[in-house]
Specification:
CATH class of the largest domain: Mainly Beta
Largest sheet: 8 strands, antiparallel
CATH topology of the largest domain: Immunoglobulin-like
Number of domains: 2
Radius of gyration: 24 Å
Structural class: alpha+beta
Strand content: 25-35%
Shape: globular
CATH architecture of the largest domain: Sandwich
Helix content: 10-25%
Number of helices: 5
Strand order of the largest sheet: 5-4-9-10-1-2-3-6
Number of strands: 10
Length: 193
């Protein structure tokens, strides 16, 4: 098996060789970076704060908070890391997460990207690897393209919002089985790039 030499090891060797060629001393060698010390520059990112989608939900969940942070790495590795964190929500509940054309109803074009699940304290976190920075929906029949720059999440089970909105609350299609509750939170006037 042939040993693998990393780029950082090659860089360190080049610095040492240059120092020796130029008549460097042990002090110059001491300043050379080690093979593991070359740090990668962090990816640019964008963060959004989400808001409750209605006054009724805000009254029912007064401590609800959610943020989305997206590491913009599509150009480097082919996808972005989309991390959503939430707290103050209904405990032990599933929510469906979407990238959407418009934050509020009627929402326009949407893309279902996954779920978050709250723990017994009403907190949830998940990271999805997807293309967020350039997300769009395209209708090939009409030639219409819609940019998806907003974020929202819905109660996955239509019964999970009944404690706030009553048994007659709307049933929406924002889940894989086309049966979900209302939108809990959205990004409002904050947008993905």
């Amino acid at each position: 098996m042939t040993p693998r030499i990393t780029r950082s090891a090659i860089a360190a060797i080049a610095v040492v060789a240059a120092a020796l060629t130029a008549g460097g001393t042990s002090a110059a060698l001491a300043q050379a970076p080690s093979a593991g010390s070359v740090a990668a520059k962090p990816a640019p990112s964008v963060s959004l704060k989400l808001q409750t989608s209605s006054d009724e939900l805000k009254d029912c969940f007064p401590y609800a908070k959610a943020t989305v942070k997206v590491a913009l790495t599509t150009d480097d590795i082919g996808s972005d890391a989309f991390t959503i964190k939430a707290s103050g929500l209904k405990p032990n509940t599933a929510f469906t997460v979407f990238i959407i054309e418009k934050a509020g109803a009627p929402f326009g074009a949407v893309e279902y990207i996954g779920d978050i699940f709250t723990d017994k304290y009403g907190s949830a976190k998940n990271t999805f690897n997807l293309i967020a920075e350039e997300a769009f929906a395209f209708n090939n029949e009409t030639g219409v393209r819609k940019e998806l720059n907003s974020v929202g999440f819905w109660f996955a089970d239509p019964k999970d919002d009944d404690s706030c909105l009553g048994a007659g609350s709307p049933v929406t299609q924002f889940d894989g089985d086309a049966s979900a509750g209302v939108q809990m939170m959205n990004s409002g006037t904050h947008y993905l790039p």
